[in-house]
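Lab channel / #folding
Pinned by the channel admin:
"Please post every new chain as: sequence first, then the structure tokens as a reply. Keep commentary short and put observations after the output so the thread stays searchable."

First post following the new format, from NK:
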Amino acid sequence: MRDIIIVGNWKMNKNNAETKAFFEEVDGVAKTDKGLYGVGVPFTDLRTALDNAENLIVAAENCHFEDSGAFTGEVSVPMLEELGVKYCIIGHSERRQMFGDTDETVNKKAKKLLDAGITPILCIGETEAEYDAGKTKDVITAQLNGSLKDIPAEAYENIVIAYEPIWAIGTGKSASVEIAEDCCKLVRDVVRDMVGDEAADKVRIQYGGSVKPGNIVEYMAQEDIDGALIGGASLKPDSFIEIIEKTK
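Reply from TO:
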């Protein structure tokens, strides 16, 4: 049985004071032995988040695949490791579309994180045009094969894959439960083809895309959905608390 993992993605929101206030309100509610709850926060909030987290896990929202160098504005995995970060979101569609992340660079980041003992939350997903054209399977397969290239089967228990259809991120449109489950099952099947049954059974798969308190229970009831990557609903303590209480 895979443990659930529900993580909010704050994106470029909240300063340190707001982060501290959020953790003071939410952290105690997240105490459970049935899974993991947490948030991905901007780099500038990581220290405050970690200092105030007893139950919530804290994720960085990105990293670079080099340890150091002339990469202005980037943050390395050793820097995250020094802070005590244990989770990192990589390959989010916004990073891919706006900042040039590719399957190749995501693969390098995943390997670097795993080597440091940090769990990558690796995002994949198709555009609305690709979905309408019936290319979802091809897109997911290509992204997984590229982003997880040469990662050994035994590492998959320390990997989280977040399936996020791009057409459902920040749009208010969410994939139906049936679509979400079918696509998360597809992710697991692709992993099975890549590295075998044991890895496919252990890897945790999240659904993301306009997840909120009103639909979280339906998603979490599905066999191949082990958690959620949550955007807007994770910014408000009351809505994130409701999500936690409905699923723990």
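NK: The longest strand covers residues 35-41.
TO: also worth noting, The longest helix spans residues 177-195.
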